[in-house]
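Incident log, structure service

09:12 report received: a user says their structure output differs between two submissions of the same chain.
09:20 pulled the input from the user's history:
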Amino acid sequence: GSDGDVLLDNQCSVTQVYSADLDQYRPDTALIVTQTGDPTPTVSTEAAVNYGLIVGLGVAVIGIGVAAFAIRNRREKLGGPDRVQPSNP
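09:34 re-ran on a clean worker, output below:
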């Protein structure tokens, strides 16, 4: 957008790579900065996946399941959680 001779910009403005077509809009006081390489941004269509995290979470879930199963089986062998074990002093 613009306000008289002043061009306005904000985070909703369309961003594009500078080209000679934009020279007519460049103010006389603008600094020209040279850049090496292609300034065109690249966009990856593949999501970054952290397979290590996924495997780690899977191993943790399986470990918790195995531990819960073992604890339950141990309690059943001892007669359940409500059974009082007699002691010999």
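09:41 both user submissions now match this output. Likely a transient worker issue. Closing.
09:42 reviewer note: The chain has one helix and two strands. The longest helix spans residues 51-77.
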